[in-house]
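Cast an eye over this sequence plus tokens and explain the fold to me:
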Amino acid sequence: MLIFISDLHFIDGTAGEHNVPTDAFKIFFEDIAGTADWLIKDGRVIDEIKLVFLGDIFDLIRTEMWFDYPENERPWGNNEAKIEMNANTIFDAIRKKNKTTFDLLSGDLKKEFKLPKEPEKIYVPGNHDRLCNKYQSLRDKVCQCLGLPSRTTPFDHFFQDVNYGVFARHGHEYDKFNYEGSISYEYQDYMRVPIGDPITTELVVKLPWKIMQHKKVKKLPKKEQEALRRNFQDIENVRPFSAVIEWLLYQVKKSLRLKDVIEDSIDEVIEEFERLKFVKQWYKHHDKWEDFLDEADKIQSVLFLLKKFKVFPMEKLIPYLARVSSRFAEDDNLKAAADEYAHLDNQIRYIVYGHTHEAKQVAIRVREDPREPKEQVYLNTGTWRTRYFKTQEGLGFIGWKNLSYVSFFKKEERRTDIPIFETWTGTLKKI
């Protein structure tokens, strides 16, 4: 058996209470144990269980702790010694906040859940845990938390197993905002800082932090303060990404007496973001005069609309949102998966990515071969995080919790002619 999970986004809690509870992992392992037990009772042999953590497991970007350090000591700065030290401090806070979960993952899973084999765990870094692969000190801590063998070399950014017909990446390689490297996909490519890092910390995390600093907010009853903080800390869970502006409009509508506070905070955060040395350099490199829809233009169009909160009434902003949304609508991962097969072993049938937080199964093509027609399928592992979705009608959002994973089986495990897959996605309306 081969199982993929991704986008758990363990955080330190300063930017919101979004960690996956330990009980969710107990349910997950009980499901795996149930499947294995059913196969064994039917006479099949389960000689291995591989569990792949396919990126964005540890989120070192979504935290308010970076605001305790100067710009050059943050992940987009140049003081490497201090960045490593600060990243370790944040990782330690993540580990402490999720201690019971990491105790479970690093413990004896075979004994705990009556599995036929102790799972072999594999870790593939994503963009939010980029720093976990940059420093040996953090690689050691990743191994401790997940129960992996210690290592002195970086983690691989892909996983392949022809016995299951699978090739997997986190998938941020095809997101121009979250991967700054070349198509060589070498270690150094992954270590280059993408603009998505400061967007997450300096915009998404900083906005609620900035709002909560305001004197007018501090005078509110504690319960109202916490509700306001929670609403704005959920910005990163909004899907699609282009709906973020509408989410902010929605929050303003719900808190009209704080409209001036929210608008002032948005302006301040954007001004501080655009003053960052890294951001100025990124714009200079990516803003191409011959391309009016480059990555820089897309970001600038979103920031432009955010800056207009004060100038235009909400109803006048709505028509512009569709134009901005269309610029983010294309599923680059789906296109990349279709192209990926050209460079892979002929035995690979399944491409697996994470990153988008949207569980998917897409039929790519059937390769015509008289000896063995081969189906090619793209699967996305989704997320275990809460997601908020824009409603079909009106300005509003509805959220629910998610839990999804993808399992693969060798031919002999399911008595099939080819390796096969199963996907499981659960939702819980608890928010």
